[in-house]
Amino acid sequence: MIYSVKWQEKAVQDLKSVDKKSASGLTERVKIYLSQDPLSLGKPLKGVFEGLHRYRFGDYRVIYFVNKKERAILILRIGKRKEVYNQKL
């Protein structure tokens, strides 16, 4: 069953700072693949990010929350690995 995808405003801003080719690829991957099975495609995070998942796309990471009850994914942040974990959610 497909999960609906919602984008937090910060994630939309992050996406605008990514080059157009990567941004296009990221949005397509989220729509086509991640919405199908976000729990097994993403990796659960630990520590201060407990309860969130990350999806890897090249050098970029998509940080998201899965609401199983509503079958929805909330995309929180997008960025390069070295930077995305230092940003405020």
Topology, pairings included?
Elements: E1 4-7, H1 9-16, H2 20-34, H3 38-41, E2 43-44, E3 53-57, E4 60-67, E5 72-80, H4 81-84
Parallel strand pairs: 1-5
Antiparallel strand pairs: 2-3, 3-4, 4-5
Q: What does this protein look like?
A:
- By secondary structure, the chain is of the alpha+beta class.
- Helix content is 35%, strand content 31%.
- The model has no long low-confidence stretch (mean pLDDT 93).
Which tags fit this structure?
YaeB-like fold; 89 residues
The total strand number stands at 5
CATH architecture: 2-Layer Sandwich
Sheet-strand content, in percent, reads 25-35%
Quote the CATH topology: YaeB-like fold
Tally the structural domains.
1
How much is the radius of gyration in Å? 12 Å
Apparent shape: globular
Helices, by number, come to 4
Q: What is the H level of CATH, i.e. the homologous superfamily?
A: RelE-like
Average residue-wise pLDDT: 93
Distance between the termini: 28 Å
Per CATH, the class reads: Alpha Beta
Derived structural class? alpha+beta
Adjacency order of strands in the biggest sheet: 1-5-4-3-2
| Helix proportion range | 25-40%
Question: How would you briefly describe this protein structure?
Answer:
The protein is α+β, with helices and mostly antiparallel strands. It contains 4 helices and 5 strands.
